[in-house]
Amino acid sequence: MSQAETFSLPEVTSSEIEALVKSGFYASKSDVAKDALRCLFEHKPHLKITAAVEMYNTGKASLGRASEIAEMSTADFKGALAERGVIRTIKSTNKRVKKGLETIQKSRK
Known about the structure:
The chain contains six helices and no strands. By secondary structure, it is mostly helical. The model has no long low-confidence stretch (mean pLDDT about 90).
């Protein structure tokens, strides 16, 4: 679980959030924020893709996980990365490279 983030809001917005919680519409301020973000990403899906690309680019999400966050297939997400000029690097071990070369050499015989 990640550390809680803090941010400041205009006083009127803070009061509105408190009123929503007090009225029982939401259980907590955190629930209000979660719903607000869900609505934001629902109405502006390009922001979800942008967030996923950034998370992938900084190593905070794997290709598969970032695809899920962006709500795209892996192939479509690869396209989104390419459109944004993100160069993907494939990490491999010497053992995997050697095994791959052996497979190629066997297939040529």
